[in-house]
Amino acid sequence: MEAKPPFKYPTAIAFCLTSGFWMMVATFYGLLGATELMAPDLSANLGGIVFGRVRPTHVNLVLFGFVTPGLLGAAFYYLPRLLGTRLYSERLGVLTAVVWNGALVAAVATLAMGMTQGREYAELAWSIDVVIVVAFLLVFFNFMMTVKQREEPILYVSVWYVLAGCILTSCTYILGNVIWRPDSGALVGIPDAILLWFYGHNIFGLLLTPLSAGVAYYVIPRATRNPLYSHTLSLLGFWSLIVVYTHIGTHHLLQVPVPTWLKVVAIVDSIAMVIPVMAFLINIWYTAKGKLGEIHADIGAKFVFTGTIMYFFVSIQGSFMALPDVQRVTHFNNWVVAHAHIGVLGFAGMIALGGLYYTIPKMTGRPLFSRFLADFQYWMVLIGMVGFTIVLTIAGLIQGNAWLNGETVYRVLPEIHVYYVVRAGLGLLIFSSAVLGFYNIVRSVWARSGAPS
Fold first, then answer.
1. pLDDT tens digit string along 5-18?
2. Cα gap 75→78, rounded to integer Å
3. Which residue, 108, 27, 14, is CA-closest to 66?
């Protein structure tokens, strides 16, 4: 007889543990990078941890180590339940988690050795790119076969978002990393810049956003015990996201010689992002109307709902940043870093953590090991993220206005040093929250008896 697996949802558990572990590593690299900006000589003679290697390691681990596995972990739990069937293959799912973690270990090692393609969000070596694409395709195959054998005839919108996120990311990852050119992993000149930012923005809009929306659409109605406010709005948000978000990457290239028509499309679609954003938010917020008490009582739902609020701020900000007059001041400085932290940590990261804390008790049949630790992590992440946003926005405005008036880069650095000190302190807060969160997740998964505190 086949041995009974230790967990009913081994794939979901594997991805949840992956997310918790790599959040620790990713935030440690973020703290290290922030410390190096505060004290540049700290790693002067240590090639493996110079800022130019630490920064891409931090970014890739946040994207592919913390947030994406966290969102997929929740999806591996809720997708079979929405379809009224079992996951097609738990063995394949666990194998995918092993492959995924192998790619992350290889990413850390190669970036520390200076092996990089030198392109934003596309730094990883060609061999790792291939493994990541294979991992996404394995996830997609497992999900699709689960859909094929479903008992429930209607596909709830969360299923739409998860399937689209996996297959579209496989395609955009291949394009953005120029995977058909193993020798360089890049094109040449302006075409490479256009292709890179097509990918660079879609790794958020066609991966983190749909996976996050899928989790929110599952958790909020369940936590509030309310039906989804509008199925029509959910589909409007889905299709408008696919159509509109795909073309906005060129708004990062308004100050370089790309075709004017492409810039216009990027700006117009950046403003038009208000359609999918508000369709999603109105739907979620009206579903939760009158039930904020239930959301506050459920720590997973509280993380998720806060993530939707951050989505509002980051999206409105992003639309304004695409305007040329605004971008002259806000681009190429710490303002953009603040914007990225709202989006990745505030929106997708909060929802990923919410998905973990909502689904783990249901997968294990026990309460979280410590509700207090989960609440404590919530406030540490929220304070740290809001703090990042404030100090980096101020630093970015100082930089942008100084450069606009002809000031040189090095003369501005003393003016923003104090903000880098505060940023490093906030980074310590985020890293500490990740350590506590991983401890809580591990104890929640493996505790023999629930001992919530």
1. 456 899 999 999 99
2. 5
3. 27
Nearest to 381 by CA among 423, 421, 339, 353: 353
Query: 3-state DSSP call for residue 198?
Result: helix
pLDDT at 449: 45
Cβ-Cβ contacts under 8 Å for 184 (sequence gap 6 or more): 117, 178
A 10 A CB-CB count for 421 gives: 16
The DSSP 8-state label assigned to residue 39 in this structure reads S
Q: What is the chain's alpha carbon radius of gyration, rounded to the nearest angstrom? A: 21
Instruction: Describe the crossing of helices 157-176 and 231-245 by its angle, rounded to 10 degrees.
Output: 10
Contact between residue 369 and residue 440 where contact means Cβ atoms under 8 Å apart: yes
Residue 406, sorted as left (phi over 0), alpha (psi -120 to 50) or beta, turns out to be left
| C-alpha to C-alpha distance for 321 and 339, rounded to whole angstroms | 10
Alpha-carbon gap, residue 424 to 431, rounded angstroms: 10
Cα–Cα distance for residue pair 121/67, rounded to 1 Å: 14
Distance CA 394, CA 404 (A): 15
Q: What share of the chain is helix, strand, coil (3-state, %, to 5)?
A: 80, 0, 20
Structure token digits, residue 295 = 């959301």
Where are the chain's structural domains? 10-446
Count other C-beta atoms under 10 Å from residue 148's C-beta: 10
**Segment 96-117, tens digit of pLDDT:** 999 999 999 999 999 999 999 9
- Which tokens go with 445? 């998964």
DSSP per-residue letters across 342-387:
IIIIIIIIHHHHHHHHHHHHHHHTS--S-HHHHHHHHHHHHHHHHH
First to last CA, the chain: 39
pLDDT higher than 50, residue 2 = no
What residues contact 351, with CB distance under 8 A and at least 6 apart? 71, 212, 215, 216, 303, 304, 307, 308
CATH superfamily of 10-446: Cytochrome c oxidase-like, subunit I domain (1.20.210.10)
* DSSP three-state, residue 194: helix
Q: How far apart are CA 417 and CA 423, in angstroms?
A: 10
Task: Decide if 278 contacts 219 (C-beta within 8 A).
Answer: no
